[in-house]
Specification:
The radius of gyration is 17 Å and the shape is globular. The chain has one helix spanning about 1-20; strands at about 35, 55, 65-80, 85-95, 100-105, 115-135, 145-150. Strands 1, 2, 3, 4, 5, 6 and 7 form a seven-stranded antiparallel beta sheet that branches. The chain has one helix and seven strands. It is mostly beta strands.
């Protein structure tokens, strides 16, 4: 009976640790992530505050937004909270060394409403760097999102706003 109880506790702790890891947004500055962009302040899309946003230069294509997760992470979900000035076409690539990039997501002819949360599921990948590459804006403005989130989705439910 004692062995059964210990096995139950160990299994519960393991599942609990996995559930907590899947709830982590790796792209938060509070979790050690940083970012650069061709224009604008990218850290405003990594602060867990939908009152701030990254906005690229207006009327300029292409634009990039590159996140350094601070360490190699395993993830399978990108979630973007878009502002009204969204990307019609874009790609997301990953890298372990910020030099050799692999495209993991390509979106074409996207439509978005203001404050819309879009969740993009990708094949599970392991990388330190993630690069959003906007290739065509939907409007004359720049590219703009309130939050850019990175998760290892599993048993958890992702947030909306």
């Amino acid at each position: 009976m004692k062995h059964l109880f210990i096995s139950f506790i160990l299994c519960t702790l393991t599942l609990s640790a996995f559930a907590q890891e899947t709830d982590v947004n790796f792209a938060l500055t509070a979790n050690g992530a940083t970012a650069t962009a061709t224009s604008g302040n990218p850290l405003l899309a990594m602060d867990d505050n939908i009152g701030t946003r990254w906005e690229s230069e207006h009327k300029v294509d292409p634009q990039t937004f590159t996140i350094d997760l601070g360490q190699v992470r395993t993830f399978n979900t990108i979630q973007i909270v878009w502002e009204g000035a969204y990307a019609k076409d874009f790609t997301v690539s990953t890298s372990s060394d910020n030099s050799l990039w692999s495209e993991v997501l390509k979106v074409e002819d996207q439509t978005v409403t203001n404050n819309e949360v879009k969740t993009y599921f990708i094949n599970q990948t392991t990388a330190r760097y993630i690069q959003f590459h906007g290739t065509e804006r939907a409007l004359d403005y720049g590219y703009s999102f309130y939050e850019f989130r990175v998760y290892l989705a599993g048993v958890s439910t992702l947030t909306t706003l």
